[in-house]
Amino acid sequence: MSEREKGAQDWFRKGTEAMNHKNWDYAIECFTNCVRLMPEHLLYRQSKHGCLRKLYNDNGSGAKMAGMRLMGVKTRLKKSRMQKDWKNLEVTAEEGLLTNPWDPQLWFDLGDACANLNNMNVARYALERAIEYDKDNVDFNRRMGHFLFERQEFKAARPYFERLYKLAPTDSDARSMMSRCDAESTMKSGYNDADNTRDVKVEQPAAPLNAYEADRLARRGGPKPADAPGESEEADMIHAIRKDPQNVNLYLKLAEHYKGAREFPKAAEQLNKALELSKGNAAISEQLQEVQLTMLRNDQVEAEERARKNPGKERLIEKAKALKAELLEKEIAFYTHGVENNPSDLKKKYELARRLFDAKQYSKAIPLLQQAVANPAMKSDVLVLLGECFVRDGKLDLARRQLEKALEGLNAQDRPDAFKTAHYLLGRIYEKAGKTEQAEHHYGEIMAVDYEYKDVLKRMEEMQGATEGGIGE
Question: Which of 35, 113, 218, 222 could make a disulfide contact with 89, Cβ separation 3.0–4.6 Å?
Answer without folding.
Answer: 113
